[in-house]
Amino acid sequence: MTRYLILAVFIILLGYGFMEALPLMEGPMLFITAPANDASFKDGIVTISGTAVRAAVLTLDGAPLPHDQNGSFSSTRVFPRGGSILTFVATDRFGRTVTQTRTIFVPH
């Protein structure tokens, strides 16, 4: 009976450890809510927002993009006329990265 109880506790602890370690094994995730891909902004003012999960560093076109402890970020930027490709990169504390791009257009 004691052997089964020890085995059950061991299995529970092993499962708990796996569930706690799973997010660390998955790496960062990046969700861009704005701007939409291929969006057009006639005044050039673009609101950028989204969530970076498990990201230690978040950049937009190589420049740091501040995010809160929950990973949420929001910023307003002004872009020149023409097309622009926005490159978002989220990097976790282990150096793993995920990249997403958005193409925007500011008409003449």
CATH class: Mainly Beta
User: Oligomer, anyone?
Assistant: single chain
User: Would you count the extended β strands for me?
Assistant: 8
Beta fraction: over 45%
Structure characterization notes:
The chain has 108 residues and is an alpha+beta fold. It has one domain (27-106): Immunoglobulins (Immunoglobulin-like, Sandwich), CATH 2.60.40.10. Helix content is 23%, strand content 46%. It has one helix spanning 2-26; strands at 29-34, 39-40, 45-53, 57-60, 63-64, 72-78, 82-91, 97-106. A five-stranded mixed sheet has the order 2-8-7-4-5, with no helix packed on it. The protein has a three-stranded antiparallel sheet with strand order 1-3-6, with no helix packed on it. A hairpin with a 2-residue loop joins strand 4 and strand 5 (63-64). The radius of gyration is 21 Å and the shape is rod-shaped. The mean pLDDT is 89.
Features:
single chain, 108 residues, alpha+beta, Immunoglobulin-like, five-stranded mixed sheet, 8 strands
List the helices and strands and how they pair.
Layout (H helix, E strand, L loop, with lengths): L1 H25 L2 E6 L4 E2 L4 E9 L3 E4 L2 E2 L7 E7 L3 E10 L5 E10 L2
Parallel strand pairs: 2-8
Antiparallel strand pairs: 1-3, 3-6, 4-5, 4-7, 7-8
Short description:
The protein is an alpha+beta fold and 108 residues long. Helices cover 23% and strands 46% of the residues.
